[in-house]
Write a structure and sequence with these properties.
With 114 residues, chain A is mostly beta strands. Helix content of chain A is 0%, strand content 58%. In chain A, the strands form two sheets. In chain A, strands 2, 4, 5, 9, 10 and 11 form a six-stranded mixed sheet that branches. A five-stranded antiparallel sheet of chain A has the order 1-3-8-7-6, with no helix packed on it. In chain A, a hairpin with a 6-residue loop joins β4 (30-38) and β5 (45-51). Chain B is mostly beta strands and 112 residues long. Chain B has no helices and eleven strands. Chain B starts with a strand and ends with a strand. The chains are: A mainly beta (114), B mainly beta (112).
Chain lengths: 114, 112
């Protein structure tokens, strides 16, 4: 069964600190993995996208890693800001269908305190 | 900034009413999706479309219906709203291939 599991479920950190969010998936055949940021009451916004051959990708203070062998990804946030408070969702796409089905994790709820 | 729009953003409606949630995108994307998301939970696919006149049901059973008469427009209709329909509804679109999915801002529906 294609699944995406994220941990931790929630996380509280102080402003300026770093944190790492985890994503494990069983989606096969794998196409790509995206991390989205979703502010409360809004739609998700893409942060990074990684394909099978990519190990690391950065977008400002966000750095995503992918280990396609162990089917694990992480999102590292550096020097956190109050505006980073949001839900971070790991989304994996398969390449086994024309639709390019998207599989969503439940998200990690990040809260940054001043 | 993604060019995909949902209206209304918030809707409170009485049981038994018919409602239509609007979703429009100006990117010319063929694939469009409707997801349902409860607080703290993952997104569940309820409908999708490959293109004009193509609609399919998703993974989560839903009493809603959709139509795709134009590429840019993918409305979702509930013929008779019930309190169990209270949720957030997110619309998304994607271009050809496994490109990024762009999401609308969502419609927060409350049925009283």
């Amino acid at each position: 069964k294609n699944q995406v599991e994220q941990s931790p479920q929630s996380l509280i950190i102080l402003e300026g600190k770093n944190c790492t969010l985890q994503c494990n998936y069983t989606v096969s055949p794998f196409s790509n993995l995206r991390w989205y940021k979703q502010d409360t009451g809004r739609g998700p916004v893409s942060l990074t996208i990684m394909t099978f051959s990519e190990n690391t990708k950065s977008n400002g203070r966000y750095t995503a890693t992918l280990d396609a062998d162990t089917k694990q990804s992480s999102l590292h946030i550096t020097a956190s800001q109050l505006s980073d408070s949001a839900s971070y969702i790991c989304v994996v796409s398969d390449r086994g269908s024309t639709l390019g089905r998207l599989y969503f994790g439940r998200g990690t709820q990040l809260t940054v305190w001043p | 900034e993604a060019d995909i729009y949902q209206t209304p953003r918030y809707l409170v409606i009485g049981t038994g009413k018919k409602i239509t949630l609007e979703c429009s995108q100006t990117m010319g994307h063929d694939k469009m999706y409707w997801y349902q998301q409860d607080p703290g939970m993952e997104l569940h696919l309820i409908h999708y479309s490959y293109g004009v006149n193509s609609t399919e049901k998703g993974d989560l059973s839903s009493e809603s219906t959709v139509s795709r008469i134009r590429t840019e427009h993918f409305p979702l209709t509930l013929e008779s709203a019930r309190p169990s329909h209270t949720s957030q509804y997110l619309c998304a679109s994607r271009g050809t291939g496994n490109t990024e999915a762009f999401f609308g801002q969502g419609t927060r529906l409350t049925v009283v």
